[in-house]
Amino acid sequence: MQINHAIHLTVATCELKHLSISTQKCYVHWLRRYARFLQDVKQPIPSTELKIEAFLTRLASTHIAASTQNQAFNALLFFYRDVLKQPLGPISALRAKRPATIRDCPSQTEVFQLLSAVPDVHHYPTRLIVHLLYACGLRVTGVNRKGCLLGGLDGRALVIRRNVSSALALGPAKSAFLPST
Q1: In what side-by-side order are the strands of the sheet with 168-172?
Q2: 118 within 8 A of 127, measured Cβ to Cβ
Q3: Which CATH superfamily hosts domain 3-83?
Q4: Spatial distance between the Cα atoms of 23 and 11, rounded to a whole number of angstroms
Q5: Cα 31 from Cα 35, distance rounded (Å)
Q6: What is the dihedral of CA 98, 101, 106, 108, to 10 degrees?
Q7: DSSP secondary structure string for all residues of 138-178
Q8: pLDDT digit string (tens) for 146-180?
Q9: Where are the domains of the chain?
Q10: Is residue 111 very low, low, confident or very high in pLDDT (cuts 50, 70, 90)?
């Protein structure tokens, strides 16, 4: 299969499954790296599982992060299982080691301080948007693509616009989010 055709099928499957654009770009990136790896291999590798193992082992031997190797592994699993509908057997590649450090997340007080420090910019309800993003667990990159929260307060109702010509009124906004009058 040609790499351009494989990428086209991967993008179509990502869109069909409503995966984010960042996931789609990531899968396409790893598919291209995998294709380059297969072109550089001197001896043919007999099975798909062995090809994936060799690719992941080469990644691990270059001292990449474990999460990066997992990302590549999941991209290839998606390609073979979901795009090509080809079942895979067990894959036992050399795995990159995870660091021993424990990541720290902000405390509830720190989150409240951060959210309270966000001002409205040029009379645009930036503070409201940031609070809604945080409360709904949304990512900043997903906002513009899905058309969520591209609006503001019209009168006393929260309005979400998908594009300039359409608007979906959600009803009265909570008084906690309204600017003081």
Answers
A1: 152-154, 157-160, 168-172
A2: yes
A3: Tyrosine recombinase, N-terminal domain (1.10.150.130)
A4: 10
A5: 6
A6: 100
A7: --HHHHHHHTTT--EEETTEEEE-SSSS--EEEEEPPTTTS
A8: 444 444 445 555 555 555 444 444 444 444 444 55
A9: 3-83, 108-172
A10: confident
